[in-house]
Structures are given as structure tokens and as C-alpha cells.
Amino acid sequence: MEDLFGLVGHQIESRYAVDAVVAAGGFGVVYHATHAALGSPVAVKVLKTPDTLPEHLRGAYGEQFRAEAKIIAALQHPAIVRVLDYGVLVFANGYQAPWMALEWIDGATLAKDLDARRGAGGRSPRECIELLTPVLEALALAHAKGIAHRDIKPANLMLPALDPAFASVQGARASRSAAPRLRLLDFGIAKVVAEADGPASGQTHTASAMAAYSPRYAAPEQASGTRTGPWTDVHALGLLLTELLVDAAPYPADKMELQIQTMAARRPTPATFGVDVGAWEPVLAKALALRPAERYANAGGRGAGGPPDCSVTPHGARARARAAGGGRARGREHHGAGLQRAGRGGAPSRALALGRGGGVRGRRRHRARRLERHFARTSLHGARRAARDERDPRGQPRAAVAPRAAPRP
What we know:
The protein has two domains: 104 residues, Phosphorylase Kinase, domain 1; 278 residues, Transferase(Phosphotransferase), domain 1 (Orthogonal Bundle). α3 packs antiparallel against α7. The chain contains eleven helices and 13 strands.
């Protein structure tokens, strides 16, 4: 891979000795480096200055990056790869390149994992939620702090390798208790969202200079160059969850077809691929809505447009869908496909996902609903019997039947 910035064999800020190029792409170059004082490995990502950035804004570009990087570095969550350091490199020709030093993680990206599994079929809903829960929680935290990632894709999700030392000490128990938990990479193109920003607050371009994205996982507003925010991450999560469920990329590889499908009215939900996921379908349809205002507001589902309460079972979700006029939902039931439960007291979280079952409380609510239906049927049956007893065999009300004539003396 090309060393675009010529940093291999040099030090950054006299703190990080750059060893090798790890990855290169449209946004910049990722290097493996060693902390000069501690000797520990770090990942250093050096970003390109956008070619579209006007010349008069390039001077303020570094300051804007520092301000946003400081906010991003303050995000503390186990699923977010920590930002250790940041700055802006200024080369001899005046070119500026922002950089971030991140904790180094041994493992493989979810993109590689998906490629290795192609053709084996999609994951079960339970597997999908167990895999994505750390990312959902991390994004809910970021969105609550006004930060949108804007580049959620399999290549930015890391499956850490199990530490061999830990495995040798813990034995077989380690493989069961330390299943890989996804880590979220690359907040380097994140957008710090103003408090007044919203999906319906105006069709304006983003104010962030780091307006980059991956076309195959882009939201319609990214493709059209309009306002982005947490709702953009919601769309990416919907694409990712669909890909995990159906074992197929959400959009075609062809560039022209990709542009058409990104803006198409028919959204790439599992039903589009001929896969029936039951109560998941309406949730994913909302997450992948063409108009940002019609999606969940953020990964925590806060505010208007939050996900419906389907926290017990798919049966509960289908019952609510029938009550809303959606008809009888057919399809395969998946055990425990309620909305992800989190927080204190077992209260259902407002997270964008169908996930763990309702537990004891959920079973109690289910039994209560069954009893209510039973008593309703019993009461209706009793009322019909009473009405039937008030009628004669000819179907006429008994009060309306003329009395029999008295016998003659």
C-alpha cells in the first residue's frame, strides 16, 4: 500500500514512531506506530484535506478539526476505540493533514467476517442483536452528546481477537464468556451536531469540513449533499442489520445502479431480498426511510419518531400491528425478538433494535393478555346465551308470543 504522506520511518510530534502502512483509502492512511516513551502499539490515522475545501477555508481547517477531535476524544464507552492523541501535520509545502492516534486492536473487521461467511446464510436475529448491541449503545451515547459518526459500515467495526494469555488462564470458560464484542472505529469524520439541528430543520449542507462517507452504506441525504446527523447513523444501522440478516450487501456494486437504489422509494429491507423477518420488517423499514424525518431520530430512539414499544415478544408486536390495521403478520417467530432491554429496573430501552426477550415481566404481561382475552370471550359467550334463552324456538322474543287460548268450559 502506498505511503501517501511519506511517514514510515519518521516520528509524529516526536511521540509516535511510524512503522508501516496498515490501510489506505479515500479518506487517508492508517499507520501502525509505536509510542516512543511507552513502547506500546498505536494506530495513527492521517486524514486528507478535502480537495473541495476552498482555499480561504484551509487555514481554519486545522482549528476546526482540533475542536471537533477534542469533543470526540471525550467519548468514553467500551465499544468505542479510544482516541489517545490528535493534531495537524503541516508539511513543507504548507499542506495540512489532521491525524489521530488510536488504541491498537488486534482482530478482524466485520467486513472481513462477512466476506468469509458469504453463502452461509444470514445470522439469526438473536446473533445480530448480540453482535450489534455494543455499537447501538455506543452510538446512543454519542448521539446524546450531539455527535454523529456518519460512516457506519462493516469496515469500521472491529471484532477483537481474544487475548491468548486470558484464554490460557480462563480455559474453555473464556471462549464462552469473552465472545468478540464489536468495537466502533473511525470517528475521524464525525460531525458535531448543533443542538438546533434536526432531520427536518432545513435542507442545508453540513457545516463540518469532514463531509466524507462510503457510497455503499450512504444515506440518501449523504448522496444528495443535504443535512446529516444522528438520523444518518440510524439509516446505516438499518443497512448493516439487513446485511447481517440476509447475507447480502444492501446495495449493488455497480456505481450507476448504486446511485439509483440509494434514492429509490423502495427501501432495501429484508423483504426486498425475499427474506421474512416478521416483526423486524416495520422497524427496519422505519430506520431505512427515504426521508430523514420519517426515521428514528437517533440510535436511542429519543424524541418524536421513537420506535414503538415491542419489548415483549414478536407476538406483542404483531398484535399491535393488527390493532393498527396492519392485518395478520405472517412469518417465522424468533424467540426473544423484543426491543433491546437496558437501563435500570428492567425498563425497556428506546434503542433501535429488536433484541432480547421480555424475561419474567414479559411472560407475566403475556399471561395477563391471554387471561383478558379469555374473560372477554367468556363474557361474550354468556351474553349470547342469555339472549338466546330470551327467545322461543321460532326466534321470536318470548314477550311477543301471544298466550295460548284458555280451554272452553
